[in-house]
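Q: How would the structure tokens look for this protein?
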Amino acid sequence: MLRLAVLGHPVAHSLSPVMHAHALRSLGLPGTYEALETPLVHLADRLQEVRREYRGVNLTIPLKEKALELVDWACPEAKAIGAVNTVLFVKGHLFGFNTDALGFLEALKAGGIPLQGPALVLGAGGAGRAVAYALKGAGLEVWVWNRTEERALALAEENARRLGLPVHFPKAPLTGGLRGLDLVVSNPPYLPEAYREVAPKELAFENPLALYAGPEGLDVARPLAAEAWEALRPGGFLLLELAPENVGLMAEELGAVGFQEVAVLRDLLGRERYLRARRPP
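A: Here is the predicted structure in token form.
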């Protein structure tokens, strides 16, 4: 019997248990998958519990970076990105992996988006670093954008040095005034409103509203799409992650302002979650 879990704080809203339980059933594997609330200060203790009782765990905000220090071995991708999102327990040892980079490339392939650069990654957290690492490894010129709050600036600078990437810190516009880009990717964090008060401090430097349903989410997506039009070269692609409730409406709006090849992409639960759009060649 496989005992698996996702660790994070907050984590009660995570859809990972639903997705992985479906995967276990589909593969005919006996096992369970839980969501374990794990504040950063308790991560070391939780990983000792994993050694005793679990086959493996996934990690989400805000644990990925700290986990790199706590595993017994980390793969080259995890070391380069500076984050671990998967821990496997084998013969008394914890092995750390990062599957975000490969997963992102597979998502581009599934969405029909060519690997062409330069590319702009919005955000310099763990997932943003993985995206930048994947794109750089594919041979693209990559730019990273992040806001200029003091702690966020230090984090983004560290990440940029780790990946060997240029990083910009403009207060506005969202795309940093860059032009001639082949790809703009927006992968914001999701934080339910109920958790705003207890969220990790790192999230204060992100915009959790981007994945909210209704006007809050659209107020973030609309200006980003408008600026992406200016930043993209003719033929360049925009890839947005949105609340499922906003995907259809935003797809119509992108088409109305001139984007072509607008496509709705589904997540592992079959929900409409992502938009791919192309500035006309």
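The first helix runs from residue 16 to 27.

The mean pLDDT is 82.

Upvote if useful.
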